[in-house]
Specification:
This protein is an all-alpha fold. Helix content is about 80%, strand content about 0%. The termini are far apart. The model has no long low-confidence stretch (mean pLDDT about 85).
């Protein structure tokens, strides 16, 4: 039972970190989207794609160095390739919702564009969370985690011993 609750706590902590990085990424995404749309005059979906790409870069840094910093780091090229692959699928989902609203239904006011951009981000986030944790930032196998922890524990013990005040050895009285 205790194992289950610790697994649930880890998942909740992971969701919270994913949500914090993702929330900041949403703000970056929407901010860049509105800036590009109003400054450049690009069509809605093109401005959205640019904003999504900026948010993808922002999110990778946040996920790799904060949310999933404890995950396996041995295959960074593979990790980045998978991250980009799944991010592009998320980009298509996110911007597909905006495209459908804009060109399918003619909902193109700034408010409508932001609402459907936000809805697209939400739908794509569900896919991204599943794919990132399942395929990209994979947990280290238990054996490797234990093997990797041994030297760290040894070093920690040695550091603690070196900091401990030296006291005279106590004499044993029979």
């Amino acid at each position: 039972m205790e194992h289950r609750s610790s697994g649930l706590r880890r998942l909740v902590r992971e969701l919270a970190k994913f949500g914090a990085v993702g929330g900041a990424g949403v703000l970056v995404n929407l901010g860049v989207f509105n800036l590009v749309r109003h400054v450049s005059g690009l069509p809605v979906v093109r401005a959205s794609i640019i904003a999504t790409v900026v948010a993808i870069v922002f999110n990778y840094v946040g996920f790799r160095y904060w949310t999933y910093r404890d995950r396996d780091k041995s295959g960074r090229t593979k990790e980045l390739s998978l991250f980009l692959f799944f991010s592009v699928i998320g980009l298509v989902i996110e911007n597909g919702v905006l495209y459908l609203a804009t060109y399918g239904f003619g909902w193109d006011t700034p408010l409508q564009s932001n609402v459907f951009k936000f809805i697209g981000i939400g739908v794509a986030t569900l896919f991204r969370f599943w794919s990132y944790r399942t395929w990209v930032f994979r947990a280290m196998p238990a054996g490797e985690a234990v093997t990797g922890a041994g030297p760290l524990l040894e070093q920690s013990i040695l550091e603690q011993e070196s900091r401990a005040p030296r006291s005279k050895p106590r004499q044993r009285v029979p």
